[in-house]
Design a protein that fits this description.
Blueprint lengths: L6 E10 L5 H10 L13 E9 L2 E9 L11 H4 L4 E7 L3 H5 L1 H11 L5 E7 L13 H10 L4 E3 L8 H28 L33 E2 L2
The structure holds guanosine-5'-diphosphate and magnesium ion.
Amino acid sequence: MARSGEVFHFKILIIGESSVGKSSLMTRFVDETFQPTFVPTIGVDFKVRTLIIDDYQCKVQIWDTAGQERFRVITTTYYRDAAGVLIVYDVTNGDTFSKVRRWTDEINKYCDETIAKVLVGNKDDDDVSSNKVVLTDDAQQYSRQMNLPFFETSARDNKNVDKAFYEVTRLALKKRLESRLIQDNNKKNSKDNLNSTGASIRLNNSAGGRKHKKDKIKSSSCCKN
Ligand SMILES: Nc1nc2c(ncn2[C@@H]2O[C@H](COP(=O)(O)OP(=O)(O)O)[C@@H](O)[C@H]2O)c(=O)[nH]1
Ligand SMILES: [Mg+2]
């Protein structure tokens, strides 16, 4: 049962180079399906899934690009009011990893600086071995430098997909609750109020809510900082 009946709404974005699997991650997470053939994304689209995180009910709108990333003309509407973002690269394509920095800069330009971010290396399939060119260690090192939680996923094999989405939502929820706490305290102007650095919300890490039938969560390839 969700706390207080309140529903928290979050807009979560998926960005990264074309063909890294952004649409596939969204479809895997929301519809539990995977489309092996390339279907170009047409029109800005979002899908909704409700998550329960530490008893808070979170309605997550997951936005997928309309394929504009190919032309680097993602509209500001896409970024507006986003609470979280998955920055995705393809572990079998080094060029997509080298563009992660550029996508991070893009987010910093258009989004609030408090936006929750996670780094996702997709196509880390069960049989990826020799095709994998972006090594886990290198991506992990980068994610530490950038202070980003990091997940290696496979939309095809349903590996760590739930974990990545839950983590970005958990971080967004934490930020929402903290800013609310600060606002409440400012309003009350109480003596023992918490200041912006002192306010802190603790949320459990465990993923709750609807369990997907085939979700395989491999913690070994999830590397949170
Ligand atoms: N092997 C493998 N292929 C994937 C995976 N995720 C997506 N793909 C394939 O990669 C291609 C591009 O995926 P898509 O989701 O359209 O990428 P987008 O352009 O970033 O939205 C499609 O052919 C997908 O079937 C994955 O985890 N493993
Ligand atoms: Mg797409």
